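Feature request disguised as a bug report, sorry. It would help if multi-protein outputs had a clear separator. Right now it looks like this:
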Amino acid sequence: MPLMKIETASAPAAIGPYSQGVRAGDLIFFSGQIPLDPETGVVVSGGIEIQIGQVMENMAAALTAAGLSFAEVAKTTIYLTDLNDFAVVNEIYGSYFAGVYPARATVQVAALPKGVSVEIEWVAYCGQG
C-alpha cells in the first residue's frame, strides 16, 4: 500500500514541507500540533491551559479527518518548553482519553515553533485498509 496523506482544513495547515499526517499500512503518523487556530493560523493567546486545549482540539480534528478518535492513539510525544507545566498539561491531555491510554514520552525542549509552550506528535492505529 502506498503512503497516503491525511489532511483537513479543520486543523492548522502545515507551515513547512510536511504533511499533517501520513498513513503507512496500519499506522498513521501525525506531525506535531502546536496551539494554532486552524482558521487564522495564529497562535492562540493565553497560558498553558489555553495552549494545550487548542493542541488537543487540533489533534481531534486531524484524527476525525482520518476517521479515527483518541481511542486509536497508540503513542504520543509531548514537547514542553517548561516541565513545570507538566501537571496542567497532563490533566487536560488525560481528559481526552479513556480506557487504554497511549504510550507517551514527555520532554522539555529549549524552544518550539512560533514561540509556543507545547507541541504534541502522535501515532494512531487505523487497522488494515
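(second protein starts here, but nothing in the output says so)
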Amino acid sequence: MASEALKALSREQLERLIEIYCKDWLAIDGVWFQSVERKLGMDEAMEHDVAVWKQFTVIEAKKIKEFLSLPQRAGLDGLEQALRLRLYANINRDEILREGNTLLYRTLDCRVQTARSRKNMPWHPCKAVGEVEYSGFARVIDDRISCRAVSCYPDKTDDSCACSWLFTLEE
C-alpha cells in the first residue's frame, strides 16, 4: 500500500526514488560488510556475506516472481525478466546475452567494486557470494536452471566486465 506522499509523486520522481532506495540498500549492505571486515577480517566478513545472500536472494526472487506472475518453471525467459527487476539492475550497468538453452549475465560496471577502488580498498572477492546468490535466485525462478561463474573476482578472466555468470536450463 503506497503512502499519500508516494501517490503524489510523478513517474519521473518515482523512478528517481527507486534509484535512491536501491543505492541505499547497497550502501547498508556495504556498511555492515566493511564493519565486519575491519573488525574480524575478510574471511569472517565473507562467511557472513554468504549466509546473508543465501537467504536474501531467495526472498528477492520470490517477490519478483510473484510480482511478474511467473509460472513455477519460468525458464530462461522468466529468469531474464526477473534479473532485470533485481535491486542491482537499477544501479549497475549490465547486459544479458541469450544463446540456445543458456543465458549469460554480465555486470559491466559494478558499484561495489568501483566504490572499493575509489576508497583504495582491495576488490571484494565476490565469487563465493555470487555462486550462492545467482544460483539461489535462478532456482527460485526455475529449479531446472543451474548457474556457474564465468568470470568473477578473485577468478576474473574477462576484463570487459566486472563479472559474468552463465545460466543453463537443464531440460
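Even a blank line would do. Unrelated, but nice: The CA atoms of residues 120 and 153 lie 16 Å apart.
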